[in-house]
# Entry
Amino acid sequence: MEARSDLIYDVGLYDGGDTAYYLFRGYNVVAIDANPLMIERARVRFSKEILAKRLTLLNVGISETSGTATFWISDNPEWSSFDRTIASRDGTAHRSVSVSTVPFSQLLAEHGVPHYLKIDIEGNDRLCVDALSSCKIPKYISVEAECVGDSAVLSDETSVTMLELLREVGYRKFKLVKQVGWIPIGTNGAANLYRRLVQSVARGRLRVGGLSRIAERLTVQGRIAASSGFVLSSGSSGPWGDDIAGGWMTHEKAKSLYLRTRHSYFSKERALYSFWYDWHATC
# Structure
């Protein structure tokens, strides 16, 4: 399979926020989503990029085999999934549609191995990572650390399944990133505290008038806006690779950090699906 340094895959297009950023950065994009509503909106929004052949939109689901499957469109669009328990969280209304499905390996063969692979497909992320075992892996990847239904309870061993899969296909360096605010979690406690404080003053519980406007400039979103002129949408996956602050961790350090973070988070009673972190990895 051809490896392409000019290409990014957006697996889980959602509202197009990530695709817009990748196009702005000058990359060609293959954007994939099983939800036909998201694809149709993107066709309108990115009509010029599609015409210029910089963007390929694929309305398919990722599965182990080609065929069709039932996809659940949630009234909370970011929970739409092939897993009905995810689409119906908190009793959210949802409806079914039939969509075509393909193995991720087939898309890699057709479009090439990307420079960066972003995956966020509510429970089926593993299928994309598994497909990398038989090809050259992308230089950078990001994927949800875990995505479960309301009643699922994960053991420590199960909760690090995605990290282990990333290592198995060849990744050796890792970053753990909180999805809200794209805050990297690291072993430097002072740096972590600073980033959390800035985020809270800018948009959280410590938000205060003019001070919040100053703090906003110091957030990840604010710094990217100041340096490039592009404003990341709040629901996007944000920057990737070396653009994320902090150093890369070994597998063992990443695993230890993740379990500590998870234990601390769930030391208080919380909804299981509120633990929103991404793994970023490189070779």
